[in-house]
Amino acid sequence: MLRKLSEPPLGAFFFKSGNAIAMALMTAGLLLPRWAQAEVIPVSSSIGQVTVFSDRALVKRDGQQQVPAGEHELVFKDLPYWLDHRSLQFNAKGKQSVRILDISSRDDFQASSQQERIAELDRQIKEIENQLAQLADQGKLLLNKSNYLEAYQKGSVQQGKDAPRLSTTELLEIMNFSKTILAEIHTAQRELDNKMAQLQSELAALQEKRGQIPQEETVRSKTVVVQLDAPMADKLDLSLSYVVPGASWWPNYDASFDSSSNMLKLSYYAQISQQTGEDWNNVKLVLSTAQPMIGAVLPELDPWLVDIRVPRPEMPAPAALARRKALQAMSDQRRSSESFEPLTGATMERVQADASFNTSTAERGLTNTVFNIEKMATVPTGPEDKKVAISVSEFKAGQTYQLVPALQEAVFLTVKATNSNDYPLLQGDLNAFLDGQLIASSNIKTVFPGEPIELAMGTDESISVKREPLKRFTESTGLTGSGKRISYEYQTVIQNNRDQAVELVLHDRFPLSRNEKIEIRRISPSDKEITLKEDGRYEQSVKLAPKEKKTVVQKFSVAYPNEVDVTGLP
Predict the structure, then answer these.
(1) How many other CB atoms are found less than 10 A from the CB of residue 120?
(2) Which segments of 316-410 are extended strands (E)?
(3) Which secondary-structure segment (H or E) carries 446?
(4) Which of 85-89, 174-178, 254-258, 404-408 has the lowest mean pLDDT?
(5) For a disulfide at 227, which of 102, 174, 256, 265, Cβ 3.0-4.6 Å?
(6) Residue from 282, 224, 273 nearest 250 by CA
(7) Helix, strand, or coil here: 118?
(8) What residues form DSSP beta bridges with 484?
(9) What is residue 536's DSSP assignment?
(10) What percent of the chain has pLDDT over 90?
């Protein structure tokens, strides 16, 4: 039986104003309201399923509880403080249907001792201090070894009067021996200093963290109380669900293209972030593309009025400030109420889709797609993200080589395919791999089923490009030299170093005149060789055989009267 909060508990009608008999009996202690006799039963539950949206999560807890016949209060403690009480839903299944009387929530504030954390930090600090003491002892041994070697050297050179003088060979042997030993001592001392510096840094960090921890801190949580009436003693299967903020997921992709087979392998991942205050341990994870923050109500258009502007009288400074504050408060209140609408049952309705994948199954509803992750997942609360796989798809793809030599002397490889899945590929970051090598990091726009996928795979170093200006020639026009014509010529040299023929799309542009006095004449390439757009930009197809080099020439002229000051020319 499913019930949302909140209706008055049954039995409240006994205490309506004016019921003198009931009031007298209650005053005498002979009549108590039924809810006052309810047994309080703490419930132990665990998270079984989490549905993650783009800005929140729907958490479902499951548990079992033995209840005697009669009215009871089932208490779920230590729930996230920020849960939306409007989203609370409860269900109980047993041998007979139980009656849910009321669902409510309250805030709990508890003092939590930090003694365990402090003790652990103290243990780590003590351990590092012991390590530093041991390293200091090693340093003393190295210093003693160095001093002994120095005394040995002096004794060997400064001998007594009766002692025979050392030969050159013996002196060299002593010097080489000292050199070897000193090199070992200095190396060990440097390693020792590095270790001590690292430990000193760790010790300082732990001591700072230790000093910031209070002896006690206040932990805020929510407690949910469910009042129900059981017709008989029974063991109930319980479920409690609620919506919490602080959770989100976004897509990212690995795209791997095999140029020999023209196959595109697209791995679809979800990056999950959750700081809800409770860990999701070994739960069924569901990812939804629904956007509940947008709302489910069709927005209503206001009339579009056009009128003559009337100057507004200036408002005194204090009044204007008060008005701005009032408008800002109204805006904040509206955003607060709209940004956290509780989820409705319609959001979760799904129709089983035909497609199935290696790592998840996709269910497409009327307004959204849901990905059911096949394996149970664990996502602890905290700043670290969790990456899970959604699907792996393969598409037959085609290659397109494109270049914009006026801006960059490089050839870009673009892979095109069609999204044959029955779910959309949402916008996200993408790592592009070409023949097993990471080429570039880019992004992918949202691609719906049946739409083309176009992925940038980075530059192809096997095709070289060189663009340079050949000439810029200025001449006078008109019988009296009243005009000027400037002729431009550029060349782009493309070298195909591959063993296969390639076809490229060259992007370039001609100047576009915005004044009738300025005349643009396009000479090369001709209009038949290009696809010209209205703004002067064009695309030109260039085919290259294996190892072939080709030169593409662009020519145009600009003519205008001398008295005209022309901008935009190189």
Answers:
(1) 11
(2) 351-356, 360-364, 369-373, 377-379, 386-396, 398-403
(3) none
(4) 174-178
(5) 102
(6) 273
(7) helix
(8) 476, 560
(9) S
(10) 42
CA–CA distance, 12 with 9 (Å, rounded to integer): 6
Beta bridge partners of 376: none
Which two tokens mark 356? 């199935």
First-to-last CA distance in the chain? 78
- Work out the average pLDDT over 448-457: 89
Peptide bond into 256 cis (omega under 30): no
Lookup: tokens for 324: 């701005």
Choice between 93 and 7, residue whose per-residue pLDDT is larger: 93
Confirm if 368 and 293 have CB atoms less than 8 A apart.
Answer: no
CB 61, CB 240: distance < 8 Å: yes
The answer to whether 430 and 252 are in contact (CB under 8 A) is yes
Residue 109 pLDDT: 77
In whole angstroms, what is the distance from residue 79 CA to residue 221 CA? 6
CB 506 within 8 A of CB 408: no
How many residues does the structure list for the chain? Answer: 570
CB 537 within 8 A of CB 507: yes
The dihedral formed by the CA atoms of 288, 1, 106 and 58, expressed in degrees to the nearest 10: -10
Q: Looking at the DSSP assignment, which residues form a beta bridge with residue 256? A: 265, 433
pTM, 2 dp: 0.58
525 preceded by a cis bond (ω within 30 of 0): yes
Which of 89-93, 305-309, 470-474, 484-488 has the lowest average pLDDT?
305-309
Neighbours of 357 (CB within 10 A): 17
Contacts of 320 (CB under 8 A, 6+ apart): none
Sign of the torsion angle spanned by Cα atoms 60, 61, 63, 68: negative
Tell me how many degrees the CA angle 357-275-267 measures, rounded to the nearest 5.
Answer: 20
pLDDT per position as a tens digit, 206-220: 888 877 776 666 678
**325-345 per-position pLDDT tens digit:** 555 554 554 444 444 444 433
Spatial separation of the C-alpha atoms in residues 86 and 6, rounded to whole Å: 9
Tell me the one-letter amino acid at 26. Answer: M
Distance CA 399, CA 457 (A): 10
Q: Which of 422, 366, 435, 368 is nearest to 391 (CA)?
A: 422
Q: Per the structure block, which two tokens stand in for 210?
A: 């230790």
pLDDT band per the 50, 70, 90 thresholds, residue 291: confident
